[in-house]
Amino acid sequence: MAEEAKKVTVPSLVAMKRRGEKIAMISTYDYPMASIAGRSGMDVILVGDTLAMVVLGYETTLPVTMEEMLCHVKAVARARPAALVVADMPFLSFQVSKEEAILNAGRMMKEGGAEAVKIEGGKCIADTVRAMTNAKIPVMGHVGLTPQAIRKFGGYRVQGRSASAKTAILEDAVALEEAGCFSVVLEGIPWALAKEITSRLAIPTIGIGAGPHCDGQVLVSHDLLGLYEGFVPKFVRQYADLKAVIGKAFSSYVADIKSGRFPTLDESYDDAQDRKKD
Ligand code: KIV
After folding, report:
1. Strand 139-144 to strand 44-47: parallel, antiparallel, or no bridges (unpaired)?
2. Which residue, 1, 40, 97, 204, is the most exposed by fewest CB within 10 angstroms?
3. DSSP alpha helices (H): ranges in 40-162?
4. Which atom of ligand 1 is nearest to the CA of 218?
5. Ligand 1 pocket: which of 28, 49, 120, 223 to mutate (most atoms <8 Å of CB)?
6. Has this prediction a pTM greater than 0.85?
7. Which pLDDT tens digits describe the chain residue by residue (278 residues)?
8. 73, 105 contact by CB (below 8 A)
9. Per the residue annotation, which of 3, 4, 187, 196 is the catalytic one?
């Protein structure tokens, strides 16, 4: 019998960095994907606010609500994966006050079944992170190209290219570690900066568009599976083309219905079988 994978916890994830073991993380949003990811050796499943774009069809991550996120966090948690389940805190669910941040993160854990939360931002949210960790909520940070700041950045642009921007991002990451984050996502920054941050922090860094020297990597499931129809950045490695697979299956189904090839009598009930089997 196949041995069941050991449950990943916040301390065991931090220990992976100490052992020099790379961390595999995916952003995904529903029960079947979480079940498959859980059986694939994934260390962390993030229910990312990219839900807004790749599942709900919005142009940015900004519109997704707490209720929409919670619905998907619950679906992922129901898969009971060995991977650590992290819920992304949507735009304005943690920025208004520390109290709201704790209450909303608490909902992700109490109602959603998440084991940790992720929030975007650096020094400016360090006090919020401190309050959340004091309330026993494990927090993953996220710095660099933070998509909730897209309107401020004016587009999805690589961050941290100038000397001052490099220093600011490094200081953000250090501030998050000092505030109690157990890990930090580095998004859309030059690889050399990600390497420096990774060597300066005791907590694991998880990169996305941040080069190979981070302690782990994260991609959005719909990007790596070739399911998303929008813009796919250069850091995405596409491991499958499910758009084509699903498109072919749907066209064959339509053609079979139109031509009368589906269903056959073997795919239908008759009186005798109904009595025997059903
Ligand atoms: O929302 C998300 O999926 C994320 C990852 C890309 C890190 O924040």
Report:
1. unpaired
2. 1
3. 51-54, 66-78, 98-110, 126-134, 150-153
4. 7
5. 49
6. yes
7. 566 789 999 999 999 999 999 999 999 999 999 999 999 999 999 999 999 999 999 999 999 999 999 999 999 999 999 999 999 999 999 999 999 999 999 999 999 999 999 999 999 999 999 999 999 999 999 999 999 999 999 999 999 999 999 999 999 999 999 999 999 999 999 999 999 999 999 999 999 999 999 999 999 999 999 999 888 899 999 999 999 999 999 999 999 999 999 999 999 999 875 555 54
8. no
9. 187
